[in-house]
Design brief:
The chain has eleven helices and two strands, in the order ααααββααααααα. The protein is an all-alpha fold. It folds into two domains: about 100 residues, Arc Repressor Mutant, subunit A (Orthogonal Bundle), CATH 1.10.10.10; about 150 residues, Four Helix Bundle (Hemerythrin (Met), subunit A) (Up-down Bundle). A two-stranded antiparallel sheet has the order 1-2. Strand 1 and strand 2 form a beta hairpin. The termini are far apart.
Length: about 270
């Protein structure tokens, strides 16, 4: 299966923690534990959101998709029916299968689709404010299970750093930020963070397909882990203001490592 279309891992710590929280609308969790159909649906949805298959265009033939996704035609048709029901696809008898316009997608994915057009500085500025505030709120809302998980993720980051496994570090980083978002206790803020971090992740994947990995040097990557350590220490100390500062310092470091300068004006609205 193409790297861009591999289904997400079946275990989703973020999804498991979220289960049972507020009934706000969010992108549907399509992937199941074992269902090939659900995995195919998730892979196609990811391809649509990433822009691989732009809105208004026709999907590849069923034969090509079966080969690409490694599924049977029966599973593929069921996956397409699922995506049609959710508003991503339009199945037109005698013509083919087409990607619908973003206006037909679930609200969270409409925003994520638009996120492809945001400049890196805009995305990072949004992360600076939203994630700093979320970290501050999360200090009061985090439970021991999540706090222990943050500590465990930090230890895993140390291991990934020692092995220089950037892809694994990215995965751990994403889960780390997701746990903090869940602990903030604000459903709207959680959705906004999901949109902004999703937009940033897509930009990162696109850039890394064309350029060398972030920093390219152990010392640069180690700064990233050190920034997460400061965040964890703020949570362990129960210091909301320090959690805010540590998170914002991390986002500024992230911007600098990616060649983005956030001006004083861009970070002044404290």
């Amino acid at each position: 299966m193409s790297e861009a279309l591999k289904p997400a891992p079946s275990e989703s710590p973020r999804g498991a923690v979220r289960e049972g929280q507020g009934a706000t609308q969010r992108a549907p969790d399509l992937i199941g534990r074992v269902s090939v159909t659900q995995q195919a649906a998730q892979a196609m949805r990811d391809g649509i959101l990433s822009g691989r298959w732009p809105e208004g265009t026709q999907m590849p033939s069923q034969r090509d998709l079966c080969e690409l996704l490694g599924v049977s035609r029966t599973a593929l048709r069921e996956a397409m029916t699922t995506l049609e029901a959710l508003g991503y696809l339009s199945i037109e008898v005698g013509r083919g299968v087409f990607i619908t316009s973003q206006g037909d997608w679930p609200s969270v994915d409409r925003a994520q689709g638009r996120g492809r057009r945001y400049a890196a500085a805009e995305v990072l500025q949004a992360r600076y404010f939203l994630e700093g505030w979320a970290a501050q709120l999360a200090v009061a809302g985090i439970d021991q299970v999540r706090l222990d998980r943050l500590v465990g993720l930090l230890e895993a980051m140390d291991g990934a750093l020692a092995r220089q496994e950037l892809a694994e570090l990215d995965r751990l980083d994403e889960e780390f930020h997701g746990i903090i978002a869940e602990a903030c206790g604000n459903s709207m803020l959680m959705d906004l963070l999901e949109i902004v971090r999703g937009a940033y992740a897509r930009r990162e994947r696109s850039q890394r397909a064309q350029t060398a990995p972030e920093g390219g040097k152990l010392v640069v990557i180690s700064r990233r882990v050190a920034e997460h350590r400061r965040i964890v220490e703020a949570f362990q100390a129960g210091d909301p203001a320090e959690a805010n500062r540590a998170m914002r310092a991390h986002i500024l470091g992230l911007a600098a490592r990616n060649g983005v300068h956030l001006s004083e004006d861009a970070t002044a609205a404290e």
